[in-house]
Amino acid sequence: xxxxxxxxxxxxxxxxxxxxxxxxxxxxxxxxxxxxxxxxxxxxxxxxxxxxxxxxxxxxxxxxxxxxxxxxxxxxxxxxxxxxxxxxxxxxxxxxxxxxxxxxxxxxxxxxxxxxxxxxxxxxxxxxxxxxxxxxxxxxxxxxxxxxxxxxxxxxxxxxxxxxxxxxxxxxxxxxxxxxxxxxxxxxxxxxxxxxxxxxxxxxxxxxxxxxxxxxxxxxxxxxxxxxxxxxxxxxxxxxxxxxxxxxxxxxxxxxxxxxxxxxxxxxxxxxxxxxxxxxxxxxxxxxxxxxxxxxxxxxxxxxxxxxxxxxxxxxxxxxxxxxxxxxxxxxxxxxxxxxxxxxxxxxxxxxxxxxxxxxxxxxxxxxxxxxxxxxxxxxxxxxxxxxxxxxxxxxxxxxxxxxxxxxxxxxxxxxxxxxxxxxxxxxxxxxxxxxx
Length: 437
Description:
The chain is of the alpha+beta class. It is 23% helix and 24% strand.
């Protein structure tokens, strides 16, 4: 009777568990959607295109790197304990990066190399394709112990190579090898002598490892690559090869980290698409925009942690124009600051006047006629207060190209729409220079 009484209780728990799981999934989905909405809420079409291009390039580079150079691999079992922790559960167990270049690049989806690289060394931890038919796991990780042409015999907890007990390096755990299986255990030539271009691969957790003692010699062509580090979890980070202690690796990581920090917080790289400031920048040049000049910004938002200085007349700036009639997706533009908050601006026969007087400085504004074949928009053309006086917290921006978008048609540009002033041209390198007002 006691057993029967447990069944309804167990049955009752299952629907409740499913309901809790469903609610947790909905909550997680809502949180992810809210985060995406928050992150992309201030995006214009140009921003979305830029970040899409960055993501596509990053994915393409990741795939290009994954095939011939390096690939992440999850440790599926405990056969390499304590060197590698295996756990099939989600986000459990060690993850390693595998150097696929070191032994030679393989054709995709084939056990054949395009070219032969370095020979594997004893005690290398390698990822390889199983030699068994219908294996439970097609890709495995073990340690190379026996090399081509060597006679291997496991006895008394040690591996004997050509009759001499093998001394384990300090980097390895004190493995006691068990004598089960046939290869490396039996002393006949078929099970003791490693064939040419083949290796004996053993697990560090010898008593619980299905390895070369059972499935035999592993050909070089089956070796995917050498595991060179544990990258997850972070508490288990370990470098097997010493690459992370080299100056070039630290320099590369530092440079990438610096570039990421600069891109997120300090500046933005931008390609000049139009002749908006033709007397200063040429179409096709790449500029660096100083995002910190007007205050430290929060990535992916229009928020600023600090206010910074105000924009200056004549300054070439990159700015966002928020969605408006005729431009529902918004735009990212380049132009020159012509009017500051509180000023009255007017284009008199194409000449800029501020507070009723012709502009004398800088020369880029004083000497230029801002003409347009399309007399659209009233900002800076009408002397009415609504279209002539720059409101507080806004600026008036002009572009050199006659039909380009600027404040004449877009209206006053809010200060929080300014990305920052153009600092210098960085590409092509032959044109490197500071951007002057």
